[in-house]
Amino acid sequence: MFATTEAFSSFAVDDMEAARRFYGDTLGIDTESIMDGYLLTLKLHGGARPTMIYTKPDVQPGNATVLNFPVDDLEATVDELASRGVTFERYDGFDHDERGISGGGEDGPRIAWFTDPAGNILALIEERGMA
């Protein structure tokens, strides 16, 4: 039924300008504001359809990751984002190093979680652990 549908992902934020600054300036993603600033698209690398961000003033961020960013060098990426003011999350049930990086054992990839200004959970995942 949906095998040929070009689906896309979306999530909400409560402050579109804060989202534009965070995704565009802090993370360096190419963004486009549409519908008089009501929608923001993230033009992610790799030819995937844009991820849509929409405004919802009373948004309640989820408790699961909404967007994952595979990276080659997790430590360098965490350090760079930390220098830009990003704080990394630590969750119960996971061992984290001093940077907030978790995993790397036999059970899965190394990962570091952080949030956007609306509280949506994002993750960095080291590519070599995703095979």
Automatic annotation (TrEMBL):
InterPro entries in the cross-refs: Glyas_Bleomycin-R_OHBP_Dase, Glyas_Fos-R_dOase_dom, VOC_core
Its protein name is: VOC family protein
Top-rank taxon: Bacteria
- Domain VOC, chain residue ranges per copy: 1-127
